[in-house]
Amino acid sequence: RNESKPRMWPTALLLAATPSVRAMAHPRLLRRSRLLRAAAGALRARPSVAFAPMPATGVRTAATQTPDPEKFSVPRVNPLAYVAPNAVLVEDVKVGERSSIWYNCVLRGDVAAIRIGKRTNIQDGTIIHVASGKNGKDPLNTVVGDGVTVGHMALLHACVIEDNAFVGMKACVMDGARVKSHGMLAAGSLLTAGKAVESGELWAGSPAKFFRKLSDDEIQAIYDSAESYASLSDNYREGWVKETYGSPHTPKD
C-alpha cells in the first residue's frame, strides 16, 4: 500500500477529526469539510426569527372546539348497547339497543349521520364514515339496520345495510351502495358506488358481482349471528368478561 497517497476518508469523520489527522486526508475532502464547517457556523450565527401566530380558521381541534348544539351532535348509545373502550364514535352517531361496537372500530359522523339499529354487531377494526355531498349539500348518511352482522375490518362509506343483512370480513361498501335485507356480501369484496345486493343474494369479488342465491340455512345463519353477538355483548356490558390492556401478567409458580 502506498502510505504517501492521501486517504479518502468520509466527510463526517473529517469534521470530528483533529487537525493532525485531517492533514493526512485527501485535499478534495478537506475542502468539502471546510465548507460544511463554514455552513454550520453560519447557521449557528443566524439570528432567531419570531413567528407571528397563525390566524384563526374554522378548523375545530380538541383544544379550541366550542360545543355548539345548533351545529354539532354527540354520539348517543342505548344503555343496553356495548361499545368497546377503545372504539371511537364521533359526533352524529346513534347506536341501538343490544348492538355492539367492538375493539378498534371508528364511527365518524362528522359531516353526516351514522345510524346503527338494534342487535347489530360492528366487529373489530371496522371503519364507518359518511359523505358531505356535492358542495356540502345533500349529505350521504350511513345507515345500518337491525340484526346486521358487519365482519372484522370492514369499511362502510355513505351506504345502507338493511335489516338482517350480512357484510363479510374486510368487505368494502362504497357511497350510495346498498345491501338489502337477507343479502350477503362476501368477505374481501368491493361493492362499488350505487350497486345493490338484492334480498337472498350472495355477491362476491372486487368489484362485487352476483354469485348465487342464498339457501334458507344461510339466511337463518344471519339471524343466528346477530343473536349470538347480542348475547356476547351482554356479557361484556355486564362485566362478565374481563378486559386486559397491554401484556397480561402471568404469575410465577
Short structural summary:
The chain has helices at residues 11-16, 19-22, 27-45, 216-237, and strands spanning 76-77, 82-83, 88-95, 100-101, 106-116, 121-122, 127-129, 142-144, 149-150, 155-157, 160-161, 166-167, 172-173, 178-179, 184-185, 190-191, 196-197, 201-204, 209-213. With 253 residues, the chain is of the alpha/beta class. The model is unreliable at 48-65 (pLDDT under 50).
Task: Please give a structural write-up.
The longest helix has 22 residues, at 216-237. Strand 18 and strand 19 form a beta hairpin. Mean pLDDT is 82; it is low at 48-65. The chain has four helices and 19 strands. Strands 1, 3, 5, 7, 8, 10, 11, 13, 14, 16 and 17 form an eleven-stranded parallel sheet that branches. An eight-stranded mixed sheet has the order 2-4-6-9-12-15-18-19. The protein has 253 residues and is an alpha/beta fold.
Comma- or semicolon-separated keywords:
single chain; 253 residues; alpha/beta; eight-stranded mixed β-sheet; 19 strands; elongated
Low-confidence stretches: 48-65
Q: What is the averaged pLDDT score?
A: 82
What gap, in angstroms, lies between the N and C termini? Answer: 64 Å
Strand content: 15-25%
Biggest beta-sheet profile: 11 strands, parallel
Secondary-structure content class: alpha/beta
Helix content: 10-25%
Report the strand count: 19
Radius of gyration equals 30 Å
Topology as a string of helices (H) and strands (E): HHHEEEEEEEEEEEEEEEEEEEH
| Shape verdict | elongated
Q: Count the helices. How many?
A: 4
